[in-house]
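Example record for the data management plan.
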Amino acid sequence: MASGGGGAWKVAYADFVTAMMALFLVLWLTAQDEKIKQAVERAFRHPFSSITKESTGIIPNKNDSYDRDRSGNFSSAAAVELQMLRKLNQDLLKSLKSEEENPANRTVELEMTPEGLRISIFDRSHRPIFEDQSVDFTEYGTWVFSTLAWEIARFRSFSVELEGHTQRTGKTVSEAYGDWELSADRANAARRKLLEHGVGAGQLRKVAGYADTQPMPDHEPTDEINRRVTVMLKVSNSKS
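Corresponding structural encoding:
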């Protein structure tokens, strides 16, 4: 009797590939630490609510203070927003990938925090964002903030907060115009650039200047890395 094409080997091969995938997964899991094992177990036990106690994804995160509802679980809306933040983080990493391999020379730093996504743009001497002691963007600074704006504009549910910071130099533009004015005006210049390239006016929640009062962790106040503008993206209750 004809077999009708003899496709039984295809089924057997598919079963073999599936078994190999399962084996590789088991081997990978056995090599992970206990936290990841527990997180994966929770994800399989609750596939439609895979938020772990420490993260909004399967892999644990060191930050554990994301929005939760009264029962102690993450709200579905917050989980979706945080997933969007992570997607934006990945897209920005691709768009703003630094040409320098040395982390000490970085001009853009992205960090996921309990509040949202913090983007620090450093005004480094080897690649300045602003003209010296000015609020005018360099060509590179214009490119960075326009690229940021195009990415942020895709996610209208996030609110935007801008902060300007300076390094401690002991020098000022003039007696009437010091680090406080410069840091605030640079943050405001960043606001205008984001709006110019598509970010909604309703997304802006704060523009502030901190002069040299908030240096980067583990850096001296006089380090040029403190000369920066920080863009903070947070989950917003209102949609623009």
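Summary line stored alongside the record: The chain has two domains: 1-64, 76-235.
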